[in-house]
């Protein structure tokens, strides 16, 4: 005999839900303020005033931002780093993780030991900088891509996911005459699409939010990423450094320009995430249990 028991909300539940709701509102308010100020018409904007919703809507700040050479250069740089870096991350991570699933691979145990070792110890900022310098990658986009082609955490999760795939499918493909590369491309990759979608989001967000590495490796302001440019706009008191504007920066309040730049830096990830959310959750869970 089965029945559905309806749980009554206790006093603890009400207090818990109320505190969580309040905390959620506190987290949402800063985002609402940023969006509101960025869309506020410069003619009605009043400094040091809290805007929950714009009194008068305007795209003047976005028009100004998108007409500047600095922002367009930063957008191109970040897009290139994100697209190329994410593709290379996926290729290196999944191919290496697939190789590590093969118990007969020579040096497999030693390689896994080196990978796990990096989870505990890292070289540090100075050795990494010297390595990038000796490789001739300073002031180059590749300085933000080659050193982070993969990482131990991603390899371990992907390896666990690939080991959960039915080995019988690979055996059947080899009986049909497929090589190891054909098995990887025709069998493993199609079955790994949920994990690929999840790690595409992981890698893309990481590259899109690149800040510290870009700050220390890129000396040319024309190659700055969006995050470095946004930091400069938010912290610096003068927006006039954004050369090449299509209009006069004095006609647009600096605060609305800063908020508009923050929104534009966040927008791509906010737009892409809902489409990958289903695969994101599924991909992470599939790699958690083998069987």
TrEMBL record:
The chain crosses the membrane at residues 12-35, 80-100, 112-132, 144-162, 183-205, 257-276. The keyword Membrane applies. Keywords: Cell membrane, Membrane, Transmembrane, Transmembrane helix, Transport. One of its GO terms (cellular component) is plasma membrane. Its main location: membrane. PROSITE patterns: ABC_TM1. It comes from the Bacteria. It is found in: Cell membrane. It is a multi-pass membrane protein. Pfam families: BPD_transp_1 (PF00528). Residues 75-275 form the ABC transmembrane type-1 domain. One of its GO terms (biological process) is transmembrane transport. InterPro entries: MetI-like, MetI-like_sf. PANTHER family: ABC TRANSPORTER PERMEASE PROTEIN MG189-RELATED-RELATED (PTHR43744), POLYGALACTURONAN_RHAMNOGALACTURONAN TRANSPORT SYSTEM PERMEASE PROTEIN YTCP (PTHR43744:SF9). Belongs to the binding-protein-dependent transport system permease family. This is Carbohydrate ABC transporter permease. It comes from Paenibacillus sabuli. The lineage of its organism: Bacteria, Bacillati, Bacillota, Bacilli, Bacillales.
């Amino acid at each position: 005999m089965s029945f559905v028991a309806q749980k009554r909300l206790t006093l603890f539940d009400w207090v818990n839900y109320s505190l969580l709701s309040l905390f959620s509102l506190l987290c949402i308010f800063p985002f609402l303020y940023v969006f509101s100020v960025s869309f506020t018409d410069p003619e009605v904007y009043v400094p040091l005033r809290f805007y929950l919703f714009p009194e008068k809507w305007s795209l003047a700040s976005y028009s100004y931002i998108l007409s500047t050479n600095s922002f367009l250069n930063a957008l191109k740089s970040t897009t290139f780093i994100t697209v190329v870096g994410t593709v290379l991350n996926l290729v290196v991570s999944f191919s290496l993780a697939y190789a590590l699933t093969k118990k007969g691979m020579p040096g497999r145990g030693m390689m896994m030991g080196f990978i796990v070792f990096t989870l505990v110890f890292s070289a540090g900022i100075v050795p990494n900088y010297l390595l990038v310098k000796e490789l001739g990658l300073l002031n180059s986009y590749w300085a933000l891509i080659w050193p982070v082609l993969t990482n131990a955490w991603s390899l371990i999760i992907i390896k666990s996911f690939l080991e959960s795939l039915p080995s019988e499918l690979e055996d059947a493909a080899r009986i049909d005459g497929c090589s190891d590369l054909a098995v990887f491309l025709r069998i493993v990759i199609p079955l790994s699409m949920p994990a690929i979608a999840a790690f595409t989001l992981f890698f893309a967000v990481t590259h899109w939010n690149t800040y510290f590495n870009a700050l220390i490796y890129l000396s040319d302001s024309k190659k700055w990423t969006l995050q470095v440019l946004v930091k400069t706009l938010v912290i610096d008191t003068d927006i006039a450094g954004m050369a090449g504007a299509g209009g006069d920066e004095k006609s647009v309040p600096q605060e609305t320009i800063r908020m508009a730049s923050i929104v534009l830096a966040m927008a791509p990830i906010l737009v892409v995430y809902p489409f990958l959310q289903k695969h994101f959750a599924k991909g992470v869970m599939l790699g958690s249990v083998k069987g």
